[in-house]
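Why does residue order matter? Because the sequence determines the fold. Keep that principle in mind as you read this record.
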Amino acid sequence: MGGMSKRRILLGAIGAVGWSALGALVAPRLGFAQAAKTPTVAVLFAGDSDDDEPSMRPFFEEMARLGWVEGRNVIYDRHSGKGTREYLGTMASLAAGREPDLIYATTASLAAAVLKETTSLPVVFAATADPVAAGLVASFAKPGGNATGVFQVAGDAAAKRFELVREALPAVKRLGAVFDRGAPEMKSRRAAHEKAARAAGLELVSAEFTNFEAVAKILATFKRDGLVATEITPSFALIGRRFEVANLAALNAMALVAHRVEWAEAGAVLTYGVDVGESHRRAAGIAQRILKGAPPAAIAVERSNRFELVINRRAALGLAISFPKALLERADRVIN
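Structure:
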């Protein structure tokens, strides 16, 4: 049979079954030939994304190193928490409502808000609170739900941080401490900090706040009581508005001490705590596994155990504080 005859037979067969039926048969095959959907990763910042993104650069850099290049094979959907607890639910709802392939929540409070919105979308967190106690996972080894991530034990560094305060500020015998009533594990964290302070020979003058406006009153009260240095403990509300807190401290001639590098960059004279860059890199590794198909429930929570000392010499000099040379030499980073 000639080629023309075969063509007439084929067209005749198509006419008999109809072009729409043929399309139904062919369409699934064409679907396999289409390009794969570019995954979207929603990234939730505690504060303004412009302020927070520099400190989160290790996450994006590690993602790129693992092959996820923004604009080429991954889309980042950035959400700003604006440093307000009132906006948490709205931001989490907005991020989850867009149904990304993965949500990266950079604090325990953000992760908790997201998990109230979705039990199916994969969530990776970087938490300074115990994720089991905070209800983010069932256990470290077997998270069990749709979330997993990196656990930064803020309390582990408190004793060492107070030792550094004694070395950096030998004249300081009483240290203020600001605690967020809404922070996970606030009561146990306060007790642990006060115990660590006593061990270092410091009297910790503790104050709690519920709303941000109270922070200015706390710092003013500390100044009136003769305190010259204050520790800022883990808080979603404060890390997101750390530049405002640093300005308030400067107005009260108060030296700030804190647990993570972003505070030093904002104006704290000394920070000692978990290496945030390492935490973000670990989180990127977990995100990579999930984007490749691994379920969060099967990925154990990782614990960051690398610590860093950062000194803001410029802020210290503005308060007439001169750090010992030996301490400056031991610092992982000095901001001049």
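Residues 65 and 284 are 10 Å apart (CA to CA).
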